[in-house]
Specification:
Elements (H helix, E strand, L loop, with lengths): L1 H22 L14 H6 L5 E6 L5 H17 L2 E6 L4 H13 L4 E4 L8 H9 L4 E4 L13 E4 L2 H15 L7 E7 L5 H14 L5 E8 L4 H14 L5 E4 L2 H13 L9 E6 L2 H8 L5 E4 L5 H12 L7 E3 L4 E3 L3 H4 L6
Parallel strand pairs: 1-2, 1-3, 3-4, 4-5, 5-11, 6-7, 6-8, 8-9, 9-10
Antiparallel strand pairs: 10-12
């Protein structure tokens, strides 16, 4: 009997010990068991899930940008939830809210337009999900709503385009009549490339922007708007396009009108896609200001850091150049997009 009682007491002690061990993983007050923090997850090399809300597929530049992000995520072992907004802000806001519901670790997006983001970004912040802006910035007074911006200086790009123009016409008499194909209305690149260009030509009265209209960054719209410019303006000396796809569409319109792009009408463009370099070698574009779309690797590196709780710069800019016509042939073979 004494031996049996001792065995029963030992078994009871073992059960009690097991129960205490199991209870030790529960949160106080009946809350959920604590999981790995974002800092632990990112810092230990654990799998990260990124929600990425892309503008759309409006241009060759955007296609290259999307491919760069997708390939970099795969290489970095980051699970990518991808959404194409089809150039509509409401679609991006919906995608970001879906990412929040899915409890992704980090959200990255390239905003369709600059304004109107505070509410949804506050929702992400309240959910503890860091946000990275890529390619395009947002207009907000509360910079705590996002961790960093990765992309280009669009004002500098516009300024570079204007500086090339003033140099090309240095010492010549005016007027120099310019038509401008703007990007999507309200978008950061459209606003900034316009401002930078205007700043660069402001000091010389011979330069006159005689018409300016949005071509939505697309080749088809660029052609359509350029056709309207050619009908409404008697003398056009220069076309300034906010991206290559609009410039390439406009070149079609110029040729169909019987004029020679690059000669009768000088063509300035921004981006640096392979098709634009080909057009430069054919004498149809005079200069391209580069805007690098290959942001994927830098984005994944930033994502790991913000998920791990590390500090990152408020702004990370890409390295870019200016390519006049005489440099196009040498640069063309190395263009990857």
């Amino acid at each position: 009997m004494a031996r049996r009682a001792a065995l029963l007491l030992a078994a009871a002690a073992l059960l009690a010990s097991s129960a205490l061990t199991a209870c030790s993983t529960e949160a106080p007050s009946g809350g959920p068991a604590p999981g790995p923090s974002a800092k632990t997850k990112g810092g230990s090399g654990g799998a990260i899930t990124m929600g990425f809300a892309q503008v759309g597929a409006e241009s060759g530049w955007r296609t290259a940008n999307t491919k760069s992000v997708q390939e970099a995520a795969k290489k970095a072992g980051i699970q990518l939830k991808f959404s194409d907004a089809q150039q509509k802000q409401e679609n991006q806001i919906k995608a970001i809210r879906t990412f929040i519901q899915q409890k992704v670790d980090v959200i990255a997006f390239s905003p369709v337009v600059e304004s109107g983001w505070d509410t949804v970004l506050k929702e992400a912040k309240d959910a503890g999900i860091p946000v990275i802006l890529t390619d395009r910035a947002v207009d907000t007074k509360d910079t705590s709503l996002y961790k960093t911006f990765l992309g280009s200086d669009f004002v500098k790009e516009g300024r570079s385009a204007g500086e090339w123009l003033t140099g090309a016409y240095a010492g010549e008499q005016g007027p120099v009549n310019i038509v401008e194909l703007q990007g999507t209305t309200g978008s950061a690149p459209a606003n900034d490339r316009k401002a930078g260009f205007a700043e660069a030509i402001r000091g010389d009265g011979k330069f006159k922007i005689v018409a300016s209209q949005s071509g939505d960054f697309t080749r088809a719209k660029g052609k359509e708007v350029m056709q309207a410019f050619l009908k409404s303006q008697k003398d056009i000396d220069v076309l300034y396009a906010h991206n290559d796809d609009m410039a390439l569409g406009a070149i079609q319109a110029i040729e169909e009108s019987g004029k020679k792009p690059g000669t009768d009408i000088k063509v300035i463009s921004v981006d640096g896609i392979k098709d634009a370099f080909t057009a430069m070698t054919e004498g149809k574009i005079n200069v391209v200001v580069e805007c690098n779309p290959l942001l994927g690797d830098q984005l994944m590196e930033l994502a790991r850091k913000v998920v791990a709780g590390e500090s990152v710069p408020a702004r990370v800019e890409t390295q870019e150049g200016v390519f006049p016509q005489d440099k196009a042939a040498a640069a063309l073979p190395s263009r990857t997009y």
